[in-house]
Design goal:
- By secondary structure, the chain is of the alpha/beta class.
- It contains 19 helices and 21 strands.
- It has helices at 17-23, 43-51, 89-101, 120-129, 142-149, 181-187, 200-209, 239-246, 263-266, 285-297, 316-324, 337-350, 367-375, 389-398, 418-425, 448-454, 465-473, 489-497, 511-523, and strands at residues 2-4, 27-32, 54-57, 74-77, 105-110, 133-137, 163-167, 190-194, 217-222, 230-235, 252-256, 278-281, 301-304, 308-311, 331-334, 361-364, 406-412, 429-440, 459-462, 483-486, 504-505.
- The strands form four sheets. Strands 1-4-3-5-2-6 form a six-stranded parallel β-sheet, sandwiched between helices. Strands 7-8-11-9-10 form a five-stranded mixed β-sheet, sandwiched between helices.
- α3 packs across α4, α14 runs parallel beside α15 and α17 packs parallel to α18 (489-497).
- Bound molecules: S-adenosyl-L-homocysteine.
- S-adenosyl-L-homocysteine binds at residues 35-36, 61, 110-113, 116-118, 141-143, 146, 194-195, 221-225, 250-253.
């Protein structure tokens, strides 16, 4: 993935650019990114992001979305961020048109829904005026999702029959304010305000002045649908003061109306086991999603901070030759899901018939590795209960040993060499196939490192020794009070050797075991 700063270098002019403009027509997709929760992004939005040549995005509640982009997609940050000035609306419009004229597919990603207080209309108009094709991908707006995740239905048969969205962007004291507070007061129903939490005081004052009852329930939901969601409730009379006391800042939606009281019984999101817990996931981006997803489902706010990246092995040719000869072995031993994937990627490039794998038996260390083998419709003959190399050796002994048997060990470069040594010691003829290597992840596409420094974290998870080593190699200051969870004794030992204290160690050395241990720890 290429990162281009707003005012940074643009694409080098391509030789056949003129031709490209003639033959390829660009298109602008105005895409709603939803309110924050990754699960609240539409399928169409994900599809567009995966295919885009260029992504122009604002500050997003869930930067992980950008991880779906193609590796070579151009990423342009257009929104406000501390210390940076943002692109003006005119500059954004011009950028979309310029990129589309280069024949590119541009995704303009916007929080919530692009047409709800999102200035999407202006960008669509710019495309129309330039004769450029466009598509709107609606998103789930924070105006609906925010209240829902706070346990507030915006309508209820017994309470109201209409909902109003309005912006608190303007100062109601200004004579030119476009919002008619007198009409709003008369209208009643549920009223949802986007933007303007910092102007709550003049806004609520104006509502009271227009005759709205002072005990009207009000809720403020900030960072709605993310792991940082917080809700503050009160009445029209006291909510502004309470927000100041609590330092309740944007982004927040405000809900005014009787439906707010239903939260008492319907609050659900903030009651999950890991609600409010901020957890760092250090696996490679491709592998992170299983762990992150499970933690998020329990309510955690997850920072994906990949420290390693899976790369092809240094000697791909040698690996391919071993894969080609796989059928000549008695055993194939896989030590990781990555190894399984790398193996079969090459295998099916070499052969178009699964039977070419022949008769070797298959061993897999760990349930994720075994699952990956089963995904290819192959039986796993040996899967040790304990997911560490020493246990595999024990299992082989139990199965009658490996003396004089040919074993192909599919593994990462620079992995621990306990397994090949011990198998050789038992008389096996071991060939090691280096399927991939892990490289330090040096990019910070989603800004997770910056987030970690700006905000705190409660817990960091390590799922292998290399995640420990690579995280520490980043040299980031350790956030105060951040505790450590490890997937098993080997990872824990590496962490301790580096001076870390282990607070949580999974009893079952896999992702589910780690998630369970984290849950038990916080529930205690
Ligand atoms: N198009 C967006 C709104 C953009 S205006 C949408 O449909 O949601 C920006 C305002 O949206 C913020 O000031 C805040 O009021 C609201 N907002 C966006 N995301 C939010 C979130 N996750 N939690 C609370 N408010 C949010």
């Amino acid at each position: 993935m290429r990162l281009t700063s707003r005012d940074g270098a643009r694409d080098p002019p391509s030789a056949n650019k003129a031709m490209a403009t003639k033959t390829k027509t660009g298109k602008v997709f105005l895409v709603g990114a939803g309110p924050g929760d990754l699960g609240l992004v539409t399928l169409r939005a994900k599809e567009c992001i995966e295919q885009a040549d260029v992504i122009v995005y604002d500050h997003l509640a869930s930067p992980e979305i950008l991880g779906w982009a193609r590796d070579d997609a151009e990423m342009i940050h257009a929104g406000k961020r501390a210390g940076e000035h943002s692109l003006s609306q005119q500059e954004i419009n011009a950028l979309l048109v310029e990129k589309a004229r280069e024949g590119k597919q541009i995704v303009r990603l916007k929080g919530g829904d692009p047409f709800v207080f999102g200035r999407g209309a202006e960008e669509a108009k710019a495309a129309v005026d330039a004769g450029i094709e466009f598509e709107i991908v609606p998103g789930i707006t924070s105006a609906i999702a925010g209240p829902a995740y706070a346990g507030i239905p915006v309508t209820h048969r017994a309470e109201n029959s209409h909902v109003t969205f309005f912006t608190g962007h303007e100062d109601p004291a200004k004579t030119e304010s476009a919002i008619d507070y007198a009409a709003l007061a008369k209208l009643g129903g549920t009223q949802v305000m986007l933007m303007g939490v910092e102007r709550l005081e003049p806004i609520t004052k104006e509502m009271l002045k227009q005759g709205v009852r002072e005990d009207l329930p009000v809720a403020l939901v900030r960072w709605a649908t993310t792991g940082r969601q917080e809700t503050l409730t009160g009445t029209l009379r006291d909510i502004a003061g309470r927000a100041v006391d609590r330092g309740f800042e944007a982004p927040a939606v405000a809900v005014f109306g009787k439906v707010v009281a239903l939260r008492e019984s319907l609050n659900w999101y903030e009651k999950r086991p890991l609600s409010g817990k901020r957890i760092v996931v250090t696996r490679s981006r491709k592998q992170a999603s299983a762990l992150s997803g499970k933690l998020r489902a329990l309510g955690a706010h997850v920072f994906e901070l990949p420290t390693i990246r899976i790369e092809p092995p240094t000697d791909l040719r040698e690996f391919a030759e071993l894969v080609q000869d796989a059928h000549t072995y008695d055993w194939i031993v896989f030590t990781s899901a990555n190894g399984v994937e790398a193996f079969f990627e090459i295998f099916f490039k070499l052969y178009d018939d699964a039977r070419e794998i022949g008769g070797p038996r298959i061993a897999a260390i760990g349930p994720a590795t075994a699952q990956r083998v089963k995904d290819f419709h192959l039986h796993v003959d040996l899967q040790p209960d304990e997911f560490i190399a020493e246990a595999v050796v024990r299992e082989f002994q139990k199965q009658g040993g490996v003396e004089n048997l040919r074993v192909l060990l599919v593994r990462a470069e620079k992995a621990r060499d306990v397994l090949p040594k011990q198998l050789s010691a038992l008389g096996a003829i071991v060939d090691e196939a280096f399927a991939y290597r892990t490289a330090p992840e040096t990019r910070d596409i989603t800004g997770a490192r910056r987030h970690l420094l700006e905000e705190r974290a409660d817990l960091i998870t390590f799922t292998s020794s290399s995640t420990v080593e690579n995280f520490l190699a980043l040299g980031l200051p350790w956030p105060k009070g951040m505790q450590v969870a490890s997937i098993g004794p080997i990872t824990s030992k590496t962490a301790r050797d580096h001076g870390l204290k282990i607070d949580i160690e999974a009893r079952s050395h896999d992702i589910d075991g780690l998630v369970q241990a984290i849950r038990d720890f916080f529930e205690r």
